[in-house]
Amino acid sequence: MNTGVREPMVDFDHNSPEHSADTVASYRALRDKAPVAWTEAWGGYWVLSGYDPVFDAARDDDLFSSARHEDLGVTGQAITLPQKPMHIHLPIELDPPESQKYRSIMNKLITPRRVSTLMPMIEKYVDMFIDELIESGEADFSTLTGVPAIVTITWLGAPLKDWRRHAMFHRALLAEPVGSEGYRHAIEEELPYLTAQVKRTIAERRREPREDGISFVVNQKIDGREMTDEEAFGMIELLISGGVGTTASLTGQALVWLSEHPDQRELLRKNPEMMQTALEEFLRVFSPTQALSRTVMADTEFHGVKMRRGDRALLAWASANRDGADAGDSPDDVDITRSPNRHLAFGVGSHRCAGSHLARPMARTILSKIIERMPDYTVDLERTVRFSAQGVNTGYLSVPARFTPGEKVYPNESLSELERD
Ligand code: HEM
């Protein structure tokens, strides 16, 4: 870490309870004061909260690196702050041109055309999830975390019997406080099991490929050679972890907002074609991935401040989303007809979300089907529980709701059956 004074200095910590209590107000105050500022929290880092600085930094991989740099003390996961001590995820923890080798494989795997073939599966799973809840008249909508988990597991071809364990693991990782029993269980017991299962599947698909995502990835070449099992794991694990919590966070927050705004919910029920545009606004205002980090690779002047090689920087997508041109004069209003809506909820630049083509239809299907099948649901706002910290991932741990009971679409099938070996 370089020593020396960095200016302007602010009192800010994206992982603090003060920030989590009202992230919108916290970022607004920061933008008003200094859209690029230094904080001493976590060993010191730059906070980029204005749209232009976030946009420019994310598009300059040479200056703002996503990779690990031992010489600069970045030995854990470089894109989180503080760095998490975990295995490497590809391509999100590499810079171009290295990252492009893996990213081009992902781009071939997740095209809109390929995703369209998954739609019947996505729709059926969403209906089966709602079936699990609909007869009782009350439910916790946070169980819908399971939808992106089961869809991703099915599509990739990892053992389907583990779908609920994947869902619970990612929910715990995002929502349980570090140090809690839930977090310990997830890291010490679930993670080794799920890692072993995915690694076993990778080895099996190399020997006997099937029509699934893991077979596709593991049989690709990097620089003309076979992809290693470790590389394949780094990609597959990122595809699972990148999509489960984020998509569930988006739908959870949107469902709460729609309960608070029944007129808007009714508008979307009567005009389902409006959901596409509404979803972009939900992405902008709820920004499931609030902020990710980079390492500054050279002494430089950036948007009026002096940065030094080795400095860490936090790119606050959520804050940029309330500052960009399309946010207009009313960035905090939720306008489900806002268009254009060039938000940064999926990031921007070479690492822009590789899964957005899948995230959008999953989230749209969940929201549309709940509105259609539970049109009068109300969330018990007093009993909702948010993640313990909102600095990186934001969302609800619990979304208790009531609704008029309805009928199952698949009365003879159940999600639990899929958990059998
Ligand atoms: C609402 C849902 C989602 C949100 C808000 C979201 C957000 C993001 C963001 C902000 C990034 C940029 C990371 C960076 O610049 O460092 C990203 C990257 C990524 N996301 Fe998503 N994501 C979502 C869903 C998904 C899904 C469903 C998948 C997988 C199927 C996925 C896979 C990835 C991958 C692989 C990357 C890394 C791309 C690269 O490094 O080139 N995401 N996502």
TrEMBL record:
Pfam families assigned to the protein according to its UniProt record, in alphabetical order: p450
Sorted UniProt keywords: Heme, Iron, Metal-binding, Monooxygenase, Oxidoreductase
Signal sequence region: none
Transmembrane region(s): none
Top-level division of the source organism's lineage: Bacteria
Family: Belongs to the cytochrome P450 family.
Protein name: Cytochrome P450
Organism whose genome encodes this protein: Microbacterium soli
